Amino acid sequence: MKQVFLAFLCVLISVSLGAQTKSDSLLQVQWTQALKIFEQGKYDEAVDQFNNLELSGFKDKQLFARRGEALYKLKKYSEAKTDLDAAVQARILTVQV
């Protein structure tokens, strides 16, 4: 009985990890698309894409910096400052001494 349970647990974990990898790959594709939109100067659309990525749990230190830059170009200075401050804070927390 223990062997059946362990086998089931291993399958469950492997399926879960596979789903996470697929999800991470999809988020990476969305990130690449958002960057292309940003580079095309479609800042409103880029901000929407960056927001969706954040809500989806995408973790990249540049997310706040890119969204902050897009917001700045849209002259939404207060929102841009919030994101750019978060980008600086994220870099400070990851600096290796």
Q: How would you state the average pLDDT, rounded? A: 82
Order of helices and strands: HHHH
Helical residue percent? over 70%
Which structural class is indicated by helix and strand composition? mainly alpha
Question: How does this structure look, described?
Answer:
The structure is a single chain. The chain is 84% helix and 0% strand. The protein has 4 helices and no strands. Mean pLDDT is 82; it is low at 8-12 and 14-20. By secondary structure, it is mostly helical. The termini are far apart. It is globular and about 60 Å long.
Describe how the helices and strands are arranged.
Blueprint: H1 2-39, H2 43-55, H3 62-73, H4 77-94
Helix pairs in contact: 1-2, 2-3, 3-4
Concise description?
The chain has 97 residues and is an all-alpha fold.
